[in-house]
Design goal:
Elements (H helix, E strand, L loop, with lengths): L7 H5 L2 H10 L2 E4 L4 E4 L2 H9 L3 E2 L12 H8 L9 H13 L3 H19 L3 E3 H18 L9 H9 L8 H27 L5 H7 L1 E2 L2 E2 L2 H31 L2 H9 L4 H11 L5 E6 L3 E3 L2 E3 L4 E5 H4 L34 H18 L4 E2 L4 E2 L8 E3 L1 E3 L9
Parallel strand pairs: 2-10
Antiparallel strand pairs: 1-2, 3-7, 4-14, 5-6, 7-10, 8-9, 11-14, 12-13
Length: about 400
């Protein structure tokens, strides 16, 4: 069967079509994109873990025109395999592991509470909470000065539009401009931190080394932008989709209000039920058998994370949103070599935001239908109108 990744109805709710695809075959050929599609949990897990299926960056052509975008990716751990991936991830992980997540925990909780307290009786989850919280968290992590922080979200939003299956010429132009400006900004910030180190991730990325090895400026910039784009976009989109799911299941919201100890499990269910990233593409370095299908050398296979997360072979009642689901072996953060390095930070941010919503939004409900973004790879809403302090007179 065929999937139309540009169909508005599919983009609004891809799960019925993904379910039919998974039932049709765990791995199938998709002629319109020239890729194999892995849809079952077992097949997606195999694609993500098999070292013969990797990320081998090839500059987009024409290379001169796409150089700002290419520069950020050829030096990125996510677009490389060992030994380059091992080296980059090891150096970034050393800087990232210096207590940064735990250092931010009180500040993240306080910021989430402050944003909810400042919101009016009706507000938008994304513009009033999710986006400013994500910007604050990633800016604090990296050490971006306060006056520069409003620039981060537009840069990130423009760059990630390049990952969609379909995109416009205008989106590409905006992404290239954002890539150029963001890289120049971070290179300048790294130079300032080299001269005047602080207790932030940029300073630690500047200083980190393994023996005589250290990150080049291009590698540092690419690593910082990867952390910002992946962490920032995923956090905003996961919170938006997760809260929408929660509010469409009022019994689960009541269950969570009655037992705050379920917040960590609820966050995992949010990521499983409506993951912010739906597709991760790998390339075969050799012929590879996946679920009985041979992926020929040089071919691409797309791991469909949302399809895997609704596989009834792994999840009981997979289309049911369950804040206490256990076990929950979702693949929302990936698996294997490229498992998300920022997963602990994303979990902290989502847990803090969910706790703040429960504490400071006693009449939490949808004030109107959420507005979905017409994209698939990065699944998101552009608006999630909320009633916070005044109970709605009738259900949404």
């Amino acid at each position: 069967m065929e999937i139309d990744f540009s169909d508005p109805e599919f983009l609004r709710d891809p799960y019925p079509a993904l379910g039919r695809l998974r039932e049709h075959a765990p791995v199938s050929w998709h002629a319109p994109t020239g890729r194999w599609l892995a849809a079952s949990h077992a097949a997606v897990d195999a694609v993500l873990r098999d070292r013969r299926l990797g990320r081998f960056w090839r500059d987009w052509e024409p290379a001169d025109a796409y150089e700002p975008f290419n520069l950020l990716h050829r030096n990125q751990m996510m677009e490389n395999e060992p030994p380059a991936h091992t080296r980059l991830r090891s150096l970034v992980a050393k800087a990232f592991a210096r207590g940064h997540v735990e250092r931010l925990r009180p500040a993240v909780a306080a910021e989430a509470a402050a944003l909810l307290t400042a919101a009016g009786p009706e507000s938008d989850l994304l513009t009033d909470v999710a986006e400013p919280l994500a910007v604050t968290v990633i800016a604090e992590l990296l050490g971006v000065p306060l006056p520069d922080r409003p620039r981060l979200r537009p840069w990130s939003a423009a760059i990630v539009r390049m990952y969609e299956v379909t995109r416009t010429a205008e989106a590409e132009a905006a992404a290239l401009a954002a890539s150029r400006e963001f890289a120049a900004y971070l290179a300048g910030l790294a130079a300032r931190r080299r001269a005047d180190p602080r207790d932030d991730l940029i300073s630690h990325l500047v200083a980190v080394r393994d023996g005589t090895d250290r990150l080049s400026t291009d590698e540092l910039v690419a690593s910082a932008i990867l952390l910002l784009n992946a962490g920032h976009e995923a956090s905003v989109n996961a919170l938006g989709g997760g809260v929408v799911a929660l509010l469409r299941h009022p019994a689960q919201l009541a269950r969570l209000r009655a037992d705050r100890g379920l917040i960590p499990a609820a966050v995992e269910e949010m990521i499983r039920y409506d993951p912010p990233l739906h597709m991760f593409v790998r390339t075969a370095a050799a012929d590879v058998r996946v679920a009985g299908v041979t992926i020929p050398a040089g071919a691409e296979v797309a791991a469909l994370l949302g399809a895997a997360n609704r596989d009834p072979a792994v999840f009981v009642d997979p289309d049911t949103f369950d804040v206490a689901r256990d076990p929950n072996p979702h693949v929302g953060f990936g698996a294997g070599l490229h498992f998300c390095l920022g997963a602990p930070l994303a979990r902290l941010e989502l847990q803090a935001a969910l706790g703040a919503l429960l504490d400071h939004a006693p009449a939490l409900a949808l004030a109107a239908d959420p507005v979905p973004r017409p994209t698939f790879v990065l699944r998101a809403y552009t608006a999630v109108p909320l009633t916070i302090g005044v109970a709605p007179t009738e259900p949404i």
